[in-house]
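User: Assemble these into one structure.

Assistant: Restating your components, then the assembled model:
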Amino acid sequence: MTDYFAFFGLPRHLQLDTAALEKQFYTLSRKLHPDRFAAKPLAEQEEALRQSSLLNDAYRTLKEPIARTEYLLTLEGVQLEEQSRAATDAARAAGTEKKQVAPPELLEEAFELNMQLEEMKMNKQMGDDDPQLRKDLEVAKANFEGMLATAQIELESLWSRWDAAVDASDDTAKTKARDGMVALLNRRSYIRNLVRDVNAALE
Amino acid sequence: MAYSDKVVDHYNNPRNVGTLDKSSEDVGTGLVGAPECGDVMRLQIKVNPETQVIEDAKFKTFGCGSAIASSSLATEWVKGKTIDEALAISNTDIVKELALPPVKIHCSVLAEDVIRAAIGDWKKKNGVETEAAAPAAAAH
């Protein structure tokens, strides 16, 4: 498979000029447009179609920062779900406990936050449009959104560390940045769910 | 995506939701998560120290319908089993029982993980050794 960065002739950087990417996307889209291949042999038409679909996937993935990061991580050999299943199989074979991908304190934290949120939602369902509950939910929402914003800042700093490591061909630094991003994306998906749930509760 | 009837049933009527006393000697607690979707699953088991039979099980899961159904099913299955029997439950058994589609297999993996984690916690608390696992690990 052609990798999306290579498709656009880009280095595997995570800080990306999306305006330039968009421009390139439109240029290539025009070049690959079916109208230009209508009179060409079938094989060429099909190849253009294949390239055009690759272009769309590549653009969609790279323009969105989180999708871009996740994609880069898979290119770098990180397969969260597969890793998780393989670890389960290994644990069963060895008769031991599986080492969790997410650190225990993150799981504890996410579990606790979910419990609090559920309690607030249940109280709200009990009928009382208690202004205090609404306030609690608003506070929780602000807290989760703050956590998400912090995660974003941390992620951006990892992007620049990753890009610098790529430019320097520093494998140790690359691995460090990669592992940092994996941990952060894990944490982020818990926070994102909490934000989603608190918003649903406030509706 | 359509859920199977069994998933819907467990989702609407989850069995054994709740909490056991975490600090109790005969209670093992497992907490696992699938970070890629943000699910968290907690399973607690109450084990008879004489017979090593799991006498009670409670779960609490924050996640999608399949994750809730998988953990609900796990509590049903481990109850009345010895810990060794419970350790033999695999995610493929859960996938089969609930007819989970491929995109939801990670939920069944989570349920298997949580059984193992709860039993591991109980063993640790009670000083029960896990029998020699070295050959299996080496063969892997």
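Chain B touches chain A at residues 31-38, 40, 42, 60, 62, 87, 90-91, 105-106, 109, 112-113, 116-117, 119-120, 130-131, 133, 136-137, 139-140 (CB under 8 Å).
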